[in-house]
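Notes from the 1:1 (GR / supervisor)

We went over the backlog. Supervisor wanted to see one worked example end to end before approving the batch request, so GR pasted a single chain during the call. The sequence is below; no edits were made to it. Supervisor asked that the structure be written out right there so they could see what the output format looks like.
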Amino acid sequence: MFKYTLQRILYMCMVLLIITAMCFVLVRMLPPAELPPGDPHTEVVEARREALGYNKPYMVQFGIFLQNVFTKFDWGISDKLYFGRDVAQIFFEKLPVSIIVNLYSILFSIPIGIGLGIFAALKKNTWVDYLLSTATMIVISVPSFVYAFIIQYIFSYKLGWLPFLMKAGTDYFTWDMFVSMLPAVMSLSFGTIAGFTRTTRAELTEVLTSEFMLLARTKGLTKAQATIRHAMRNCFVVVVPAIFGSFIGVLGGSLIIERIFAIPGVGGLTINAINGRDYPIFMLTTCFYTAIGLVASLVVDISYGFIDPRIRMGSKK
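Structure output shown during the call:
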């Protein structure tokens, strides 16, 4: 397991470095954002660009970029959106709200999704199972921004129960702020609920038809006892790693949902950086999203070995 984990970490770092290099070169090939004349920060940004080697070959610039990141955690200064401000400081100001909104979504989605999956598996080949399976496939197929518009139309426009946009401010744990987050949380939850429902239903259905379940019943266990003691335990070998991956993914936020509901998080920052050609911010958010995806994949793979000792990653036998 240690050898496998070390190999995966090395591969992950290699992939992150390659993606970062590609994004860096492509960004530097584009014209830099125009600097406002007369602004006191203009001279600072121009001096900064000179120090970063904007007039040198791309790979030399990339080397300077990596050196600043690894030695000083210096991602640069905003060229346009937050002119003259440190990019890392801006990013960490935006990160908490993205985490909170997505964390609410995960905490809301996991019990509902797993519960529906268990219910569908126990009602296999009945109208309940068919209804839940069909609804699950439909929900998974629809993008989250479609649910965002539906929720805004029904709960915000027609019923007036929820606000259209997230409340401004940093009081993230007040009731008013929570209510203003609900439309975004609900929009993000539909796909997650459907995903967990499908995974739980598929795994539990397979386990319930296994031979060891028949043996458990012949030993005198009731269906409920056999399901709770044996079927659920084996089913969660697949479900629990998916939960771990979801919790890692909450750091990433949601680009489109944050934009629709005016959530001042990492997702909106990324979209604004692309539209405003603020390349230092774009580089930081791109590296962040790539790292989150790679770490989530690594955590899911490694968690299989800890949850079920019979699984040995990287074994040749």
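Supervisor's comment: The mean pLDDT is 80.
Batch request approved.
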